[in-house]
Amino acid sequence: MLQNIFFGLSLGAVYSLIAVGFALVFNILKFSNFSHGGVMSFTAYAGYLAYIWIFDGKVTGVAMFVAVVLTAAVVGSLTAVGIERVGFRRLRSNQAPVIYYFISSITLGILLENIITIFASSNFYSYPVFFSSKNVDLLGTSFSVADFVTLLFSTAALGALLFVLYRTKLGLAVRTVSFDVNTATLMGIDPNRVVMATFALSGALGGISGVFLGMNYSLYPQLGQLVVKGFIASVIGGLGSITGAVIGALLLGIIEVGLIGLVGSGWMPACVFVIMLVFLLVRPRGIAGVIVQEKA
Amino acid sequence: MDYIYSILTLTGITMIGVMGTYMVTGLTGQFSFGQAAFMAVGGYVSAMLTLRFNLPFPVVVLAGSVAATLTGLLVGMPTIRLRRDYISLVTFGFGEAIISVLNNSAQLTGGAEGLVGIPKRVDLPLVAVSVVCCLFLVACYKNSKFGRQSLALRTDELAARSMGIDVNRMKLVTFLFASAITGYAGVLYAFYSQYLEPGYYNWTVSAEWLIIVFVGGINSLTGAMVSAVILTGLPELLRFASAWRILIYCIIVLLIINYRPNGIFGDWEISRLWKRRKAVQGGRA
Amino acid sequence: MNSSIATPSTCGLLEVSGLSKSFGGVKAVDGFSFDAKPGEIVGIIGPNGAGKTTVFNLVTGVYTPDSGSVRLDGVELSGWRQDVIAREGIGRTFQNIRLFKGLSVLENVMTASDPYAPYNFLSAILSMPAKRAADRQATGQAREYLDLVGLGGMEEARPESLPYGLQRKLELARALAIRPKVILLDEPAAGLNPSEVREFIDLVRRLHERFNFTIVFIEHRMEVVMNLSHKLFVLSFGKLLASGEPEVVRRNPAVIEAYIGDEE
């Protein structure tokens, strides 16, 4: 039982990285950024390639893991910034309706996925094993080291993000722009730079989650489609709320692990769908309770 | 010849599927990532009724479309009143759920191995006639009070409400009609290919339909149809590898979104040709 | 010409009392009351950010009031859905013009009669005679409304391609077409040049004579306010500051300080 909850939490921690990366962009541009999935696939491969080409034989164990994650985070940032340039910059200057952002983000997601398919083929690759499959005994139950590290590292990454958001000038600018772009611009904030910074932050999180997903599920081009987990978590938590996204993600992780135990992994997507539908019926605004209303 | 024949048939079926997406996206401005799942519902229900109970073809056609519509009701009811983002999520989740159900009820649906032994009841002429009929129905719908109200709410829900338009009801009606049409496309596919497998109805199919609608221009049914022919028929004929094909799609879409946001056809409809001619004749008389 | 757009049999009595709404602790509207008798033209003025548009949004059901009541001919409307309130007979235009860009000029006006169009789904998709007759009639009516505001001949144009002044007129025609008992105009003369403003005043007078509906409008242009309104309500920081006949309100020192003093 305790073991399952722990496993659920560690899964939820990865989901929360996805969900927060998703929520960051939603906060600023008010659309659901599905290109985040493409970033995740891309960085998962980038981490893998960095491992084979650069780091193999030079570092081992935890150091290797950290090196791979950092590479993925950097590549994720750069990719996300590039996506913003190609996919959204012009739309923003045209003041295009939200649906265009949406379709642009989906297209970019599919594009990245297919670039990977073309260059890496749709085969599965298995990620390097960073940690021994040893278990740690704690409170009479055993936990896997990988889960433990996942949980630890995700928490650290989220902590770092919160620090940036709430303790730095950049974070203040991001929060200001997400509150009201026009006023922020009048106050001398360059919205382009803030949007770029947001995409960079979101991409870094996407990179880290990409590596975790690769470790959990092995590598394949459609890996990034797990971005929906982040979306579901955001909906449960309340679209655009960072705290909500984290809570929603942890809940989703625990629910999924529970469901696999109850009904098996085959039926799990159907059950998650029903739960989500019921949730939307009961509390459409999500746990955090912010609802984004059209301005009258 | 057989090859071209089959491409034409499949393109026709895709056109009908795209009509469903056109309605959901072009008329009410929502994004359905589960449109292909309605095709699955239509296809599986009709095929299973035939295999189990040997019902006549017209009956299963009706049953397939009705089943898709009822599923649309189940999915649409709770979500349609929410922000547009949610409908994409829910339809996506619904698509995944349908695939997982189909995969896991092997005794009924053949599971991941697929459903085999469906009799062949559909050929190119039937598909061609279906395309024409469905196109007529959808075009009439667009040109009626339903289409006008849907288009109004697509551009501005708040203003639409201020005109007395029941926005949620309108979205639901359009969504249901789209589900029915897509379900029908599913029936056609099932009785043409004689074989169904859950993997065929992946969300990427729905996304591809969306892209087709966008390339044609979300305001133009004519555009959606032309772009369906160009984007599905042509690459098949030229035998492109699918990854490259999608890559090219994506680049086209990005170019269009950035540089020609109204799609290739803007809001031009072929029906304008004869409308204008009539106006000219009316002017003379 | 034989007109098919009948004049509404009753013009509405709008009574709003004790209307309040806060957004996150800020009281946007605070116990505001006003009324418009049948056939009256009522102006609501006040400094920027006083909550005027919020009042319109509360009356039309865009927002639900925290407290207070909105009654049309004695029927309580507060808490009703926005589209139901519109169908009860409150039409409106918007400060920032909100036309339906996917539809032609004619179709924009037709959306007003569409919620009532007497045909069902089946006759729509099969384009049956009943549908065609109903649409023909709706088209005819919409044309008349367009003629009334001076947009005749532009039926097939795209609304976004019209010049600004004509877009305002189109929005007015669209609001007229729902046959409102009360029509709310949110800064209808904003962005118009002086000659357009005079033309607009004449247009509103003409329409008022013809349909005799009740009009409530928000406006900054004193020319419009003084020329049109029978009665004025002044809103400041969400509260009623003064009300009464335009000339009297204009001389009220509190009003001059809060609003008119700013402008002149």
What does this entry look like structurally?
The complex is a heterotrimer of chains A (296), B (285) and C (264). Helix content of chain A is 75%, strand content 3%. By secondary structure, chain A is mainly α. Chain B has helices at 2-27, 35-53, 57-79, 84-104, 106-109, 124-142, 145-155, 157-162, 167-193, 203-216, 221-237, 242-259, 271-284. The longest helix of chain B has 27 residues, at 167-193. The termini of chain B are far apart. Chain C has ten helices and ten strands. In chain C, helix 7 links the parallel strand 7 and strand 8 (214-218). The longest helix of chain C has 21 residues, at 129-149. The mean pLDDT of chain C is 89.
- The N- and C-terminal alpha carbons of chain C lie at a distance of 46 Å
Overall pLDDT level of chain A = 85
* CATH architecture level-2 label of the domain at 1-19 and 34-89 and 180-264 in chain C: 3-Layer(aba) Sandwich
Structural class of chain C: alpha/beta
* Radius of gyration of chain C, whole Å: 19 Å
- Return residue spans of chain A where pLDDT drops below 50 for at least 5 consecutive residues: 292-296
Query: Biggest β-sheet of chain C: count, sense, barrel?
Result: 6 strands, mixed
Strand order of the largest sheet of chain A: 1-2
Protein chains sharing the most extensive interface: A-B, 47 and 44 residues
Q: State the share of residues found in helices of chain C, binned by percent.
A: 25-40%
The order of strands across the largest sheet of chain C is 6-7-8-3-9-10
Terminus-to-terminus distance of chain A: 50 Å
Tell me the number of strands of chain A. Answer: 2
What share of the residues of chain A does DSSP label as strand, in percent?
A: under 5%
